[in-house]
Amino acid sequence: MDLPQNPSARDTLSPFCSLKDDERSNDVFCASKEVPKLCGSRYPISIPFIVVNEFCERFSYYGMKAVLTLYFLYYLHWDETLSTTVYHAFSGLCYFTPIFGAVIADSWLGKFRTIIYLSVVYVLGHLIKSIGAIPPVGDLTTHVALSMTGLFLIAFGTGGIKPCVSAFGGDQFEAEHAHERSKFFSIFYLAINLGSLISTFATPALRGDVKCFEGDCYALAFGVPAVLMVVALVVFISGSSLYKKYPSKGNILGNVCKCIGFALENRWKHRSGQYPKREHWLDWASEKYPNKLIQEVKMVTRVLFLYIPLPMFWALFDQQGSRWTLQALRMNADFGGFSIKADQMQTLNPFLILLFIPVFDLGIYPLVKLCKFNFKPIRRMTVGMILAALAFAMAAILEVKLDESNMSEPVAKESLLQVLNLASEPVEVQIKDSRSFSQASLKHQDPDYLKLPVKTENENFNFNMKYQGIYSSCSHALSDRQAYSLIFYQNDTEPACKLVKDSTQKPLKGLAALRFINAGSEAADITLGNADFGSIAGNYGVSAYHTLERGYYNHGKCRIGNNEFSLDLGLLDFGGSYTVILKQDSRGKIIIQKSEDIPANSIHIAWQIPQYVLISAGEIMFSVTGLEFSYSQAPPSMKSVLQAGWLLTVAFGNLIVLIIAQTVALEQWAEFVLFAGLLFVVCIIFSIMGYFYIPVDLDGSPEDNSGDYEKKPPSGEMMLNLLKKKTKL
């Protein structure tokens, strides 16, 4: 779900952390020490500790993140815009903080101790986050404070250890055991994706299927990832005596930044034009820095310039956990024998990535090559952007269809009215005033809302009714922005009516809403599942709305006086709002009439699958290929810097979402179109930049100017193979 990495050599194992073989310290690791191996193999016995640690950590991170948007929306009671903003602010912070983790590891603690100390911070963040999800802990302000503190610590913890865990695993192998190291990273990659796949399915189930404190159990959904992070830390520490540990070294990223800063400063000081021009602006750093470093920084800055348009892709990609999850809440998630949670749809991405990798590597790419099409990296990345934009175009179409299927909410100076006919024959209702005339002949089984213009906030309406040739009338006040049901019934021999206020919004979280109207003469006590509707007065008393999980409700209980009746209400579907009228016939038997006031979600959640397929395919072509390309264009000592730039594109992508969510007030379908359009524009810009980019081979000699290059892996065939694998850092 995140980024690929190149784990082919020790100095390119992670975004930042690197160490050459000759930079060992005897007081940290003795080179002559015999490293324990797994039975019958060359694998260090320390490797299982690192793999299990990574599985637990990724489970912890993605499991927590899977339910985060719904936690903001329904536990902290934020609106969709604020929930999306904070979600992407957190995601962006997780990709800014690796820089600090790299500085700590390279300049101070080394990889091993950095992982230990920042994992402790990580665990504390999870624990605080879990405590903040326990209702009795405090008021809403306390929950918000604990949640934001926990998220900040989690972001610093996961970002801090992100640069060094994979590199630390690579450190455990001797230089001559490259084949075993290659297999290790395949296992490492599998552990990452399995952790993500399992957690994005499991934690939403813990949230929704387990009830605690009379609602969704967010404390458990956050608590299980916290336990997994504790397990990750314990497992990693348990292997301490078995690890090879290298000391900290100079900060390469810092040296590059200082070199660029000095070049800019020196050029500014000599801007008058009295000094000889230099071939490249970085040459102004030659007074202080060696030519080798300057040339390597030149190679890096050329690639970093190509990175400028890339954040737009991540702005779309990371909305799977925010806007797409909110979209899924308004869809029908029934698959016959089972249903899924809206936040479980995120599981599709890691599943499709595992499926698509062999499809692309063994099928699509070889087929394109057979067609003699020059499908080089920049072109692959461009196609990946187009696929992501198409995914959002499909999301926009789906959003339009969802809006069409919803009941229109009443606006200012408008009220909605439906007639519920509880009599045995059809009734005609005439609504007269100076502005409108409406006539309805409605049976209870086919209710529909009429839009009534309302001059004032509270206006009286006269309802003239004709029933079995008998005319009658009643008068009620209607308010704008409200929906009502006019209940028509026969009171002895006279027709009568009663007005009740309806809900105007779909139930939250894909639940169903239900209320009862008691048409009998005696009070009725009703329980349905875990919902207690209390005592509902007779003579058309109305209960409050209760929200229930989607399902078939065939065993409700209704007590009237000393008699108890069973209620069979049938299906209460996703997002539907229902009114159930209870009547007694002459023999005392309960008669049930059910009205669907707000239509249930009619569009199936499976319609999101095409957009997930497109964006997952786009991720493989964009993310895997992009890092492969950048690796081939940088000297080995600068690969960590390029990974720093790559991670920052993800951070800035989330920043783009944050800005648009807070500044652009659009309907959701229009916002999806905006993102798709922006990515198409950025795609064109990137294509032009790629066309004029002049690739270099490993020794820096220029090739053609087609925007392509012939792959010449700096670390051998093993690196190329590993780069074709997608990992979540």
TrEMBL record:
Q: State which gene encodes it.
A: SLC15A2
Q: How does it associate, per the subunit comment?
A: Interacts (via extracellular domain region) with trypsin.
Q: What domain of life does the native source organism fall in?
A: Eukaryota
Q: Mainly localized where?
A: membrane
Q: Does the keyword Protein transport apply?
A: yes
Annotated transmembrane regions? 59-77, 89-109, 116-138, 144-165, 186-206, 218-239, 299-317, 348-368, 380-398, 644-665, 672-694
Which SUPFAM superfamilies does UniProt cross-reference here?
MFS general substrate transporter
What are the subcellular locations of this protein?
Answer: Apical cell membrane; Membrane
Q: What is this protein called?
A: Solute carrier family 15 member 2 isoform X1
A single MF term (Gene Ontology):
oligopeptide transmembrane transporter activity
Q: Mind listing the UniProt keywords for this protein, alphabetically?
A: Membrane, Peptide transport, Protein transport, Symport, Transmembrane, Transmembrane helix, Transport
Q: Which Pfam families match?
A: PTR2
